[in-house]
Amino acid sequence: MTIRKLATLLTLTLALAGCGTMDRLANVGNAPALSPITDPTTTAGYQPINMPMPQAIADTYQANSLYRTSAKGFFKDERAHRIGDIVTVIVTVNDSAKIANTTQSSRNSTNSAGMGGILGGIVDTASAGTIDTTDAVDFNSGMANTGKGSVNRSESLQTSVAAIVTQVLPNGNLVIEGHQEVRVNFEVRDLVVAGIVRPSDIQANNTIPSSKIAEARIAYGGRGQITDVQQPRYGQQVMDAILPF
């Protein structure tokens, strides 16, 4: 049964690899195509966000007053606050982590016992003097353990991308999602930003730092000739997936 599954997996892999190879051969000499601009809510895998929300507060007005309880200002706010509005995300990632751990432990134990009197005499006579009755029983044990571990990681990314408000949550928070593709020669760089932001965190120039995005999803990658060279061939990927050693 395992051999049959393995054969099926190899057949499907080779078929998919063949399709990918034909697509690559058909695009020889052509730059990678850019993705069409689409509505993010219609793409495969899109799911509206459902988060715990506080109780809604009904609007109340005072006589001879322009103020209402849900108002965020007396004048019109040009910052993004509705579905379809655009907000610029300033992506700044400067993460570094350095951890070093060392553990060392040791233990030694020695126990000895002797026999004297009549019992010692019997043992000495029976062994013809080959057993020293003053140290007839001797136990020795030892244990040593040494462990070391270290982590040294550093990441840096600084860029900006315009995102679209795709959903307004009941408490007023905004769900945003933005895609940016840049093609240079035969390589496409793709930047994706998504998450939840508070309207009050959006600055007056309609920008928001990435550190203020909750449930942030930031992806930066690419595709093209350089990326293809950096990836192992499909045969090697299949062998890495199925080989147990």
Show the helix and strand layout:
Blueprint (H helix, E strand, L loop, with lengths): L1 H25 L59 E28 L3 H10 L10 E32 L5 E11 L2 E11 L9 E3 L4 E11 H6 L3 H9 L3
Parallel strand pairs: 1-5
Antiparallel strand pairs: 1-2, 2-3, 3-4, 4-6
Helix pairs in contact: 1-4
Can you walk me through this structure?
This protein is α+β, with helices and mostly antiparallel strands. Helix content is 20%, strand content 39%. The chain has four helices and six strands; from the N terminus they run αβαβββββαα. A six-stranded mixed beta sheet has the order 5-1-2-3-4-6. Strand 2 and strand 3 form a beta hairpin. The chain starts with a helix and ends with a helix.
Shape: elongated
Please, how many helices? 4
The helix fraction, in percent, is: 10-25%
Q: What is the mean pLDDT?
A: 79
Name some characteristics of this structure:
single chain, 245 residues, alpha+beta, six-stranded mixed sheet, 6 strands, 39% strand, elongated
In short:
With 245 residues, the chain is α+β, with helices and mostly antiparallel strands. Helix content is 20%, strand content 39%. A six-stranded mixed beta sheet has the order 5-1-2-3-4-6.
